[in-house]
Amino acid sequence: MTHPAPRINLAEKLAMFDSHWDPHVVANYNGNDVMVVKLKGEFPFHKHDDTDDFFLVLEGEVTMDYADHPAVTFGAGELVIVPKGVIHRPRAETEVKVLLIEPTGEPNTGDSGVPPAPKPHI
Fold first, then answer.
1. Which of 10, 55, 65, 78 could form a disulfide with 89 if both were Cys (CB 3.0 to 4.6 A apart)?
2. In degrees, to the nearest 5, what angle opens at C-alpha 96 toward C-alphas 43 and 50?
């Protein structure tokens, strides 16, 4: 018999680490990792060839820069989905807390040349 998963408190999970650009998996569903991450500064421009990129801001404000489109700024309770193949870069002036969803095993760095974060489970 399968048992329901316990509730997950995202604030408690985010309090478990202080690093930036270091996603931590809090749950898995249907072949996807549900992750929390703290962002500060800017990530390199990159793209994901095979999957869309999902960002839901929990606290703070993120600007998503695009190579070929105007930037979009979004805050707590707002989300942006970057379509696969679109060159983008998230950036944040101050620390931001974000929920990410992506297929298990997808490198968070896309084609940026930056080694992917290890994505520990917490």
1. 65
2. 45
Other C-beta atoms lying within 10 Å of the C-beta of residue 89: 17
Tally the residues of the chain. 122
Distance of alpha carbon 117 from alpha carbon 120, whole angstroms = 9
Pair of tokens at residue 66: 């695009």
Q: CA–CA separation, 82 vs 71, rounded Å?
A: 12
Q: Can you read off the two tokens belonging to residue 12? A: 């408690």
pLDDT per residue as tens digits for the range 13-55:
999 999 999 999 999 999 999 999 999 999 999 998 989 999 9
Tell me the C-alpha distance between 102 and 41, whole Å.
Answer: 22
Please identify which residue in the block is written with the tokens 């990129």: 53
- DSSP letter at 10 equals H
Residue 73: name the closest of 88, 91, 58, 86 by CA. Answer: 91
**DSSP classification of residue 110:** T
What contacts 105, CB < 8 A, 6 or more positions away?
A: none
